[in-house]
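Subject: two folds for Thursday's group meeting

Dear M.,

Sorry for the delay on this. The cluster queue was jammed most of the week, so I only got both jobs back this morning. I'm pasting them in the order they finished. Each block is the input sequence followed by the predicted structure tokens. Could you check whether the formatting survives your parser before we put anything on slides? The first protein is the one we discussed after the seminar.
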Amino acid sequence: MSQELWTQVDQYFADLLLPADPVLEAALKASDDAGLPAINVTPNQGKLLQLLAKIRGARTILEIGTLGGYSTIWLARALPADGRLITLEVDAKHAEVARQNIEFAGLAAIVDIRLGKALDTLPQLAAEGSGPYDMFFIDADKPSNPDYFKWALKLSRSGTIIIVDNVVRKGAVIDSANEDASVQGVRRLMEIMAAEPRVTATAIQTVGGKGYDGFAIALVNNNG
């Protein structure tokens, strides 16, 4: 097994199941042209997020970590015309690229980009009475994953889906002695998920165009 094979299989599925999409392709190009890191979800993963949002019947989504807005577009397209997606981004340059991409996608009326540290913005959203949300996608700095998850619980309701990306860390997640802050952030997240009686959760390993990784998904059972 090799990265080359994983990428080829990813491309095979994408070619069959994901029609050419000039808007999404433009979003990736704009991000690349602006020098943003190429850490967006893959097309197949974007489609998975969209399908999960549709299966949930989501009307409200909160995304933590916008980057260039690629995953944001996938998610926002799953919402009804009166739906709402709030996405949180700490980097002003990333947020501006995302804003342009979202406008080009015709989704500016649905998507609200909030600039600032998510751990500052999340209390502001709570103070505004924002939420509860039907779905969360957490794909930001991994050391803060435990705090992001706790906030997602606070802003959720029964039936809310919480997805956290990049939890495998190329297998390093199983190494309790690993001193990498991202690995420890994921390990703490998994411990919190395991101990939290209000959610049912699992984690899935993945391979593909972005290598070996995975995601966690939790369903909120009772937030009362």
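Second protein, same layout:
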Amino acid sequence: MNFQWYPGHMMKAKRMMQENMKLIDLVIELTDARIPLSSRNPDIDELGRNKARLVLLNKSDLADDRCSDAWVEYFCRTGCSAVKVNSKKGGGIKSIQTAIQDACREKFERDRKRGILNRPVRAMVVGIPNVGKSTFINALAGKACAKTGNKPGVTKGKQWIRLNKNVELLDTPGILWPKFEDQEVGLRLAFIGSIRDDILNSEELAIEFIRFMKERYFGILSGKYGIDESGDLYSCLRSIAESRHCLSRGSELDTEKAAGILLDDFRNGRLGRLTLEYPPQM
């Protein structure tokens, strides 16, 4: 499959982010803890040059904890502050205020030298679609400030949110980048739901996911669905369809429905805590 999704509203959102970057002290970039590198938009590095950076590994409850710790170390070595968070359940949220203060030490020192005291940090919250930016903002604010949804493209425009006297956040739409140089990156983004499902072939995507699971997490699919994983990839998908009674008219196995169930089980953590890519040191 060829993976690409860069509709016009993303180009518009990128221009908006460029225009507002001059107002910003800190870029808070949310990644998906299951694919921390693939879920980083390379355009953000260009947009956020010379700005303090804080990388959040969101949905950390869905990822292998040992891998997430290694990813935090990796990002810290590259000069970014990094924190594991689970915005939906509030995990790691209490540590964010401290992380923001740590990431902005140079900004506070510059302000002090200029005689500026207590100027709030203005932070832009960025990330790819469906990574949980709005859920994170609501968890940090302790109230519903930003619209959320379990699909890409919910946030359409910018929104300023004052957290307290010390921090103001700018919520931005999720954006991808015009071309994936590595289609493996596109595949991982499709797995986690950051590319719209209705432009993808769900059966082909499920087959690729089964391939990955057999290589890295053999035994999990058999434990979950009671199937024999030793067969070929399509046989595994058919077995999942049979296990979950996915039938179309005429009692034929509905592998498309089974593909949807498999991907939904992965995205919602029902297959356990899985990480799809590992940091270089691992």
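Two things I noticed about the second structure. The first helix runs from residue 8 to 20. The mean pLDDT is 90.

Cheers,
T.
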